[in-house]
Design a protein that fits this description.
By secondary structure, the chain is of the alpha+beta class. The protein has 27 helices and nine strands. Strands 1, 2, 3, 4, 5, 6, 7, 8 and 9 form a nine-stranded antiparallel sheet that branches.
Length: about 600
Amino acid sequence: MEYGVSYAMIVTLAVLAALLYGLIRDLPTDVLFVGGVVLLAVFQIITPEEAFAGFANSGMLTVAALFIVAAAMRETGVLEHVGERFLGRVESEGKALVYLAVVVIPISMVLNNTPVVALLVPVLLSWCRKRRISPSRLLMPLSFLTILGGTCSLIGTSTNLVVQGLVTKQFNALPPDSSHRLDLRPMNMFEIGYVGIPCAILGATYLLTVGRRLLPDRKELIEQLEESRREYLVEMLVQPPCRLVGRTIGEAGLRHLPGLFLIEIDRNGHIIGPVGPEEVIQANDRLVFTGIVSTIVDLEKIPGLVPAADARYEVSPEKQRGRQLCEAVISPSSPLIGQTIREADFRALYNAAVVAVHRNGARMTNKVGDIELRAGDTLLLQVGPDFSRAFRNSADFYLVSNVEDSRPIRYDRARTAVIIFLAMIASFVTGMVDILLAAFVAAGAMVATRCISAGDARRAVELPVLIAIAASFGVGTALEKSGLARLVAGQLVTATQVWGPIAALAAIYLGTMVLNELVSNNAAAVLSFPFALEAARILGVSERPFFMAVTLAASFAFASPIGYQTHMMVFGPGGYRFGDFVRVGVPLNLLMWVCAIVLIPLVWPLRSVG
């Protein structure tokens, strides 16, 4: 086949090369894609309308709505409850991996994998600290399993929705009598799962066997620094509805907490100490701990376990909204000096409640409410939203700083969030409602029922991701209009024609997979999509197996930490190195390639299209 090179091809190729260079250099993706489509419009390769048509694309808008839905599930503690329920009593690394596979793959089928990883990373870190297991043994499998689960349904990953948007655009442009309408129809909810589920099972089996042996075993940096961190004295009251009631200290996971030591239990004035692992927790027990802030924050997030130093501590989820934890150091001129915490009446003076106390590195053993305050004492406080601004320069305190990740979880809205989420899934699985409409109705319902605040909903929408997705459609249009997609696809077909269409399919998958390790998954999908369609059309076969191959290959990125957003989320906490992903991910990439190329033609035959 002979193909001429035109002006439009040269310009498009130059913009594409610059775009790829910027993506590899890790420049802002949204800026790169917007800049790229603007240049393509300036050089009249595409029209201004074509450059920005992606901002009205249904796939991109669905991703935006699902960001809010997933954030609401996180804010209401639904996923944290799932993680605690399945991992709470697991003690070994091997069982934890099995439980992760059983839980994470189904969750990632119906929730975007990025918020799933964001929520489960702290859950796994806490579990690993308690059992002295290196997080590097579990965090990489977590990221890999969410990706495997995301390829089992249409909404599991933004990549699937991006390809859906591209396919819908092609479908809408076809005449009513076109023979290609069947092959370019939009995907249904679980269609990609016909190949995605077998791949997920195979991938999980690899991670539980061969892959597990290849995982590194490194200690988390925070564990190495624990000894030098501030230790507080905290007294927690076990309220009757708390899930810890009736469980032993060992079963509740309170025996070997990271950086936290259970000193004693005060049971109706009777002191139990030292506390044995078989001691059963009862309602109204007062548990006295000494330990670090991060674990105290974790304790405070257990429903029904509340600080006992202030009888008026806000425990109602409604009243806790807008409150957070804050550290404050008492100054020499503070009127609090010489008073006990119980006498100081923090609620009246500062609209705050004392959670815990730290004193000059000394381990205190008094009851928190009976501690007489001194200059230099550090208090962990539950405060209102304006405390830091009001008292940062107050003479009462040296220093005031907010504690990260200490916002209360909306447990009282968890049931509502689950109902809304299940209704959304049911509505578009049954075909009753369009997926875009269902996602936006669910997002609106989450805000309306206060599962998530309007401000948090706005912050949950990752604008750079959405802008990059929207602008990338214009790049795809340029590849088609300029003829560059046909040129590259023609060369690919020529190179593989001796072995037939399956060889071309394998080449398209391999090219997308390699590109995915260099740039983002959404970018890899958008850039590969036109080449896949042109290759199918030149061969005269169905386009469906080709764009399905692109969808899968653009998600299965395991060999590089930059290949997928969730890899970067676990890279630091797991103490990983680049070579760790290469060692574990390359065999998995190749395994998925072989599995997909075997199954795709069986599910979507490479039949001739007239």
